Every structure is written in structure tokens, then in C-alpha cells.
Amino acid sequence: MERRSKGFYVLAAFFTLFLIFLYGPTLTIGILSFQGPQGGLTFPMNGVSVHWFKDLFQEQAVGDIWGAFRRSFALGLMVMVTTVVVSVMAGLAFRKRFAGSAVLFYLAITSLVIPSILISLGVGLIFNQLGFKIHWATSGFGAQLTWTLPFGLLIMFAVFNRFDKSYEEAARDQGATAWQTLRHVVLPIIAPSLIGVALFGFTLSYDEFARTLLTAGSYNTLPLEIFGMTTNVTTPVIYALGTLTTAFSLVIIGVFLLVAWVMNRRRTRLGSDAGKGGI
Amino acid sequence: MQIRNRHILGWLEAIPLTAVLLCFLVAPIVMIVIVSFWGATEFSIYPAFQFDNYEYLFGSEVVRRVFLATFKYAAISWFFTLVIGFTVAYFLAFHVRTQTMQIALFLLCTIPFWTSNIIRMISWIPFLGRNGIANQTLISWGVIDQPLEWLLYSDFSVILAFVHLYTLFMVVPIFNTMMRIDKSLLEAARDNGASGFQTLVHVIIPLTKPGIMIGTIFVVTLVMGDFITVRFMSGSQRANVGRLISNDIGLLQYPSAAATAVVLLCTVLIVIAILLRFVNIRKEL
Fold first, then answer.
1. What is the mean pLDDT of chain A?
2. What is the three-class DSSP state of A35?
3. Position B251 confidence tier, pLDDT thresholds 50, 70, 90
4. Domain count, chain A
């Protein structure tokens, strides 16, 4: 192996600084959330306690954060399932290069880059003018999909661009119907990538703020609740909440990554029996 | 028959996506355009066809300054995210040798993207505040005598937060294009006597352009459309177009908010149209 150049160490140092920049602030509030009961929003630590975490569990202190958490969790699951199903269907559709696919593609890109406040404002206006009640599970749900679906679609593009068509052809040659090919060949092959789509669907919804702002109605999702707290809470309780919800996100991410990893390993272990002499 | 069949099946499979985008993207935009011509009283809005909202927008000195500030935020954030994102991607793509390590480090960069932006903004407060870590450290080192006031609630903190939140959107597409560069091209450059720097400028950067463009589109549109980072990180002391819109919404002046939103959307689309001249997105995935 050739020796590391000097450039490598400079870049490695830069990369390390970048990681500190990315994670440092979050770690800081992680530490500060264990502030003593008399402690403030910055260092020094005034003792160490779980006082502020306890505070979170006394509902009257900080509003309805557990209700908000439940709503965000439910909404995240709804958005996740919808994103996976709709993205896969759209991904399959785009492979067929149907007439009008370019228009739909540019629409999806628009959905991704449009300033979020337009979605928030527009959906809110439509619901108001039509006399519908805005609610996180209807208007909020739809508004969030405009953010998660383009990501799901882009991942599907990346997946199908690398997809080896000869598997499908082999299935067809052996007499599989279109549905059988999809069910027994295509879906199992792309399954690990669907974990990725699901991860995007859930986490982007769980943390979404701008598009939910005017579309959630009278019951806040967690990010909205947290944002409300920033204006009137001046104790480390907000750090405790931040730490808790970040930890929750990390657990979710960890679970998704673990599942994807296990699926990949199973595939490399069981994927091919070529040359092994089995029947 | 075969061809018609393919189109019909494609349409059927595309129905859900089309339906969502029509209801929650196209219809809202149409609605905003319509309402931008409406009028408003203090408490309600009424249908009309008047250009008052636009006349005000294009005549106001304040609005002009706010648009300029928005471009300024976009330009500065773009510069820093590009320099940092390119360097990080370059390190990952060309200096990390095993694929496992590449994936692990790449994931490390990506994970914050899946956590809450609001929390990530809040987490700068103990760092940048008047008695925050940055000021305490600088004072204890003797670099400054008094706490710096411009660290938090300033243009500095706004741009810092943008760079913190959005550099990832540069890293991912640039890394993606870099990984497809044929390594033999780099060897060829070296064999022909190019220095590392020359290889970077004449081989890697030109081949990475599509990734840079996609990252640029992401960062520029995210920053231009933002309203919450500017509000939070500037302590409501700075304005951009997004805040103009959200302030109008807060005052129930929906027609005026809608008109500003239309102008913002057109601005963003023009910027994207210019950038798209340089890259074919679908080929890059």
C-alpha cells in the first residue's frame, strides 16, 4: 500500500473539524440538559441532575409535549408508509417512460425546491376557502408528503438506474407473469433500498416544521411545540426535550440502518447458489 | 398494443404521486396566485382582481432591501457550503481507501440531516451566547476583553446556522458524482506529470460539476425559501423574504403574503432555470 500523502492528513483534520462542527452543538445541549435545578442556559454546570428531564414528565410545566410527540409519531408512520408505497409505484412507472413522465418529474423536483412556506400558505388557504378544517392528519399529512415524496422518488431513480434488468428477463423467460416478476424478483431485490426510503419518510416527517406550520391546525406536532417553547421557555428544560427527541431520532435511525445492514448480509450469504452444486 | 399498454400501466402506477402533487403542490400554487390579487381588511380577505399587492411590493424600498438580504444570505451560504462540502466529499471519495470506511464516514455526515433542524438551531445558543462557550473561551485565552456581541442574533449566526444545516446537501451530490469518476483518469493525469493540484483543477472539478450544480440548487433554494432560521438565529432582528411572508400571515394579510410568495417563487424558479442549463439531473442519479 502506498504511503499516505501530506494532503491526506490535512484533509483528515479538516474532516474531523467538520464532524465536530456538525455534532458539537448537539452534544453541548446534551450535556447542558443535565444542568442542576439552579443551572442556566449556558455553562458553567450548576451541579448535575436529571431535574429538567423530570420536568418534562410533569405536563402542566411545558404544555402538551407528550400529545405532540404521539401525534408526530403517528404522522411519521403515516407519511413513511405512504412515501414508500407511492415512491415505489412512481419509480416503476418512470421505468416505463410513459408519455408525460417528464412533466411529472419536473413537478416532483418543483415540490422539492419550492420554498416550504408556499406549501404551508397555499394548503392552508385552500382548506380555509373550501371550509375544510385543517388538521395534522389531513392537510398536515398532505403538505409533508410534498417534502418526502421527491426524496423517495430520487432514491427510487438511483435504485432503478443500477438495477440489472437481466433478472427480470430471466423471470419472464421462465414464464413468470408481470405481477410475479414484480413480487418475487424486483421487490426482494430493491427491498434494502426501501428501508432507506422509509427512513427518509419517517424522519423528515417527524422533524418537519415549515410545511406543517400553517397546516397542522389546533393540535401541534412536536417540532411546532418545540418552536413554541423557544419563545417562552428560558430554562434548560428545552435542552432536555431537545436531547430526548434527538436521542429518539438516533434510535430510529439506528434501527433502520441495522435492518438494512442485516438484509444486505442475508443477501450476500443467501443471494447466490451458483457453483455450489445444490439443486 | 404493446406500447399503449406500457403507457397505460405507467400512468396507473403514477396516479398516486400525481394526485398528491396536484392536490398539495399545484393547487396550492394556483390558490396563492389567485389570492395574490385579492384584497384584505384587518380581519378578513375578499375576492377581487387588483394589483395593489404587487404595486406595493415593487414600489417599496423595504421590500427591495429584504430581497437583497435574501440574495446575500444565499450567496454567502452557497460559498461556504460549497467549499466545505467539496473538501469533505473530496476527502471521502479519494482519500478514504476502504468502502466500509467510506460508507461509515458518509453516514456520520448524513445522520444530523435526519434529526430536528429546530433543535440543531437551539443547540447553538449555549455556544454563541453572551456568556456562551465561544466568548468564555476567547476571554480566558486573552484574545478579547469583553464578550463579542455579534456572535448570536446577527448575520453571522444566521449564516453559521445555514452552513451547519445545509452543507450536507452539497456533500451528498458532490460525493455521488466523485464516486463515478473513473480512477484511471486520475492515474493518467499523474502519469502525464500533473501535480495533485493540477489534477484537481483540470480533471476532478470539471467532472464534478453536475454534483456541484445539484448541491447549489438545493442550498440556494433552501436558503432563499427559509423563514425560520433567519427569525430564530437573528432573534427577529434580520429579515428575508420568507419572514416577510410569515409576518404578513401572522397579521392575517394573506393576499399580501401570497403576492410576496409569488414573487419569491418566480425568483427561485429563475435561479433554478439558470442553474439547470448546466446539468441534466436525471442522468446524474
1. 85
2. strand
3. confident
4. 1
B 142-181: CB under 8 A from A: 164, 167
Q: What is the mean pLDDT of chain B?
A: 88
- A141 and B CB contact within 8 Å: no
A258 lies in some domain: no
Domain that holds residue A72: 60-233
**Residue among A32, A146, A250 minimizing CB distance to B25:** A146
Among the ranges given (A77-86, B68-77, B125-134, B200-209), the one the predictor scored with the smallest mean pLDDT: B125-134
Q: Please check whether residue A142 is in contact with residue B24, taking contact to mean a CB–CB distance below 8 angstroms.
A: yes
C-alpha to C-alpha distance for A96 and B6, rounded to whole angstroms: 6
Residues in chain B closer than 8 A to A246 (CB atoms): 115-116, 119
* Residue B119 to residue A29, Cβ atoms within 8 A: yes
Nearest-Cα residue of chain B relative to residue A144? B24
Q: How confident is the model at residue B275 (pLDDT cuts 50, 70, 90)?
A: confident
CATH classification at residue A157? 1.10.3720.10
Q: How far is CA A232 from the centre of its chain?
A: 28
Which 187-206 residues of chain A touch chain B by CB within 8 A? 199-200, 203-204, 206
Question: B183 vs B150, B204, B219, CA distance in Å?
Answer: 46, 10, 28
A108 located within any domain: yes
CATH 1.10.3720.10 corresponds to the domain B66-284: yes
Convert the pLDDT of each residue in B134-185 to its tens digit.
888 888 888 888 888 888 888 899 999 999 999 999 999 999 899 888 888 8
| Cell numbers representing residue A61 in the block | 410545566
A95 within a domain of the structure (yes/no) = yes
**Based on the number of CB atoms within 10 Å of its own CB, is A23 exposed (0-12), middle (13-18) or buried (19 or more)?**
middle
Using an 8 Å CB-CB cutoff, list chain B residues near A90: 13-14, 16-17
Across the A:B interface, residue pairs with CB atoms under 8 Å apart total 255
ipTM above 0.90, yes or no: no
